[in-house]
Design brief:
Blueprint (H helix, E strand, L loop, with lengths): L5 H12 L4 H4 L6 H9 L6 H11 L10 H13 L8 H12 L6 H18 L2 H18 L2 H17 L3 H18 L5 H17 L3 H14 L6 H16 L3 H14 L6 H17 L5 H17 L3 H17 L3 H12 L7 H17 L5 H14 L3 H14 L2
């Protein structure tokens, strides 16, 4: 029999793997308080309590004696089967505890578990957590001396760094991928190669070299002409982003419409939703803003996000609805939606976190808050320190437009 706190961790893992709440395990033979203390490790299990729990979970008593390596295998299998929407903090917790308890597990098994943990954090919008998991994944890949695994880890680190607003780290990671591939003759799949180049495009644009970003994305786009599907939609979306940075909103919108036409919701529902959120955002950036168009895009995804989309994209929707309300002149509604969106702001990319703070600051400024101007200047300084000139210019532009 496992001793505490290992027993408590194992009990929680088995309960979560079977999709049961603590309430479902309570009954005449187990109070909620006692069960909670068992899971927390503060009460020692008895033979009677273990037999009761095994019966309620539908497992043999021996399941509570499994070795850490087996627990990691079970944890990996249960989490890998979850869709992006099904991933929650409990799923990440299962892997964290299993990894902590299995330091001497097979390195390949640990690699896959860390990869799944990073996926969990990404689905939750916890990009700092994802970065930590990917750093461990990268170190393990180096220790194993497996170039293919090193490439996979660095590719994901590059995308994570981009989401965190660290364009220089994203660019460095992509360059390392290409260097490892060339040095060791690692064959990168066509889709991974395209996605790595898209991260490089984003990094170059974020760092202010929009001309280089445009050159790179045109090369990628040309290579995929005449194709449809997820990868093509991602390329066209990136091309739209670069065109926006160039100030060519008409071309950007044309690329986004092409991306929308290249993807069926059955191919990738989350990307299908995100493209429409991007189209709504771009519609509001046009001069003058195309508010009816933006509202139509938001209305098309709201019902889906309520039932099928990841929570972080629901909060992105709330933020865009706040921007729409602001453009429509409804400051009270905009302020209310900003507060709702802020509840999930920790899951936003760095760029969207800044945009949310800008909208909040502009609303405060218009409401007569004398300190709002100082907060916005501090925000610009923060973005400039992060070496993101394009985003800093966007902040200044938003403030200037609010004063017109």
């Amino acid at each position: 029999m496992l001793e505490q706190p290992a027993f408590g961790r194992r009990l929680r893992q088995l309960r979560q793997q079977r999709g049961k709440s603590q309430v479902e395990l309570t009954g005449p033979g187990m109070s909620a308080t006692y069960l909670s203390r068992l899971e927390s490790g503060s009460r020692r299990p008895t033979e009677r309590s273990v037999a009761y729990l095994a019966e309620r979970l539908g497992i043999p008593v021996e399941s509570f004696e499994q070795q850490p390596g087996d627990s990691l295998t079970d944890a990996l299998a249960s989490v890998a089967a979850l869709s992006e929407r099904e991933v929650d903090e409990e799923a990440a917790g299962i892997l964290v505890e299993a990894l902590d308890a299995a330091d001497d597990a097979d390195p390949v098994m640990r690699w896959h578990a860390l990869a799944q943990l990073a996926r969990c954090y990404e689905a939750l919008g916890d990009f700092p957590g994802q970065r930590d998991a990917l750093m461990r994944l990268s170190e393990l890949s180096d220790d194993m001396g497996r170039p293919v695994l090193q490439v996979r880890a660095q590719l994901r680190l590059a995308r994570c760094a981009r989401n965190l607003g660290d364009a220089e780290a994203a660019r460095a990671a992509v360059r390392q991928v290409l260097a490892i591939s060339q040095e060791h003759g690692v064959r990168i799949s066509a889709s991974d190669l395209v996605r790595s180049r898209l991260v490089l495009v984003s990094a170059e644009a974020e760092l202010g070299d929009v001309a280089e970003a445009a050159r790179l994305v045109d090369e990628v786009r040309t290579s995929l002409e005449g194709t449809d599907g997820v990868l093509t939609a991602e390329v066209l979306w990136t091309a739209a982003t670069v065109s926006t940075r160039q100030g060519n909103h008409a071309r950007a919108f044309a690329f986004l419409l092409e991306a929308l036409g290249a993807l069926d919701s059955r191919d990738n529902l989350v990307l299908w939703i995100r493209l429409r959120l991007a189209a709504a955002s771009l519609s509001m950036q046009s001069m003058p803003p195309r508010l009816a168009e933006a509202e139509s895009f938001l209305d098309s995804v709201e019902p889906l996000l309520k039932v099928a989309g990841p929570l972080r994209h629901w909060h992105e929707l709330l933020f865009l609805k706040a921007k729409l309300a602001y453009h429509q002149g409804d400051a009270d509604r905009a302020r209310e939606l900003v507060a709702q969106a802020d509840e999930g702001a920790q899951s936003f990319t760095y760029r969207d976190q800044v945009r949310l703070e800008v909208l909040r600051g502009v609303l405060d400024l218009k409401a007569g808050d004398q300190e709002a101007s100082g907060r916005l200047r501090a925000l610009v300084a923060q973005v400039e320190t992060a070496n993101m000139p394009d985003l800093a210019a966007e902040v200044w532009r938003s403030v200037a437009e609010s004063l017109l």
